[in-house]
């Protein structure tokens, strides 16, 4: 299975050193039985930490298809009916599991689940987001319904994805270690959040020797020295009431971690969320995503640092350098995916024309071979409204930001005019809140 080293560490972390911020724990629930373990975990954490809890349910928008419109338009009453059903499920679940004493604020919103949950987390300055975790068939992956996986692309705060097996706060924890600063943060955060843990495995998966030797001859000795130093750093300050073991494995990271967690009868896998360099992506891939997709064990995912602050500043226009267009547009797409947009084309021959209104943003890309920018709107992988607008020979690309630094528009100029994609003002009013029923 690998090499195992046992060690003891220093004093247990006190409650005041817990890394949770002051904001509430945000529980994403649709009121179904599959989210009951997540509710149970939230209740247990809230009771021990004396932390406020808020609950959000999300009704996905029903987007009419364009062809044939007479057969496919969904009445607004159906959307309201879905919201009513979710409201009733969430309310009933909270009453049954918690009784009237909970006092948790619950609300139902309409939107793309992952985007809406991440937005509410920022809006409420949540300290932790909790969701359910259950196996997904392949067809769900095609349609992007893996909410925890999608959240990893959008969240800037910790995510606890709770598996059906959750009964109590975890006692046996597997922490993935990749020798980055994020790994050290994951270890500290996890052991502080779950001080009742009795066994903590620090697990690192090395690539297969043959794969790397071809690229970096003699790498292994250096690698092992750095790994030993990383393990030593992480042992410092860990609780003395827990058995700490370091484990080194070889092979596919997600598979080895999942198999070891099963072997160790782990209650939780903790891992980091961060952007790796080319070497790491080449040999390891996106570990968090692969672990989530295969997980039968609850997972804690910890971002690189604290949630980004949003200081007020003057709106500005950022001209993107041409040599960096592919990378900068890829980053722009990741941070704005699924936001609602309006696309306007302004050319001297035709004037200003609205090409699309209230579409979800799917992405923008620049192909240097064809010297083209492609703006993609609509729901990816579904039969909903979809539109791709292509701009040949672009002269400049600008990103416009608003007072809190968030992107507000993208402008692509070309010889005959410009394309202006503007993000719509987001309405945060919920379809229902628990306060409405009082």
Task: Give an overview in words.
By secondary structure, the chain is α/β, with parallel strands linked by helices. It folds into two domains: 3-303, Rossmann fold (3-Layer(aba) Sandwich), CATH 3.40.50.12370; 316-423. It is built from 13 helices and 20 strands. It has a twelve-stranded mixed sheet with strand order 1-9-8-7-10-11-6-5-2-3-4-20, sandwiched between helices. Strand 7, helix 7 (181-193) and strand 8 form a beta-alpha-beta unit. Helix 10 (253-263) crosses helix 12. The chain is globular. The model is unreliable at 1-17, 62-74, 137-145, 276-285 and 309-313 (pLDDT under 50).
Salient structural properties:
eight-stranded antiparallel β-sheet; twelve-stranded mixed β-sheet; 13 helices; 20 strands; alpha/beta; 438 residues; single chain; Rossmann fold
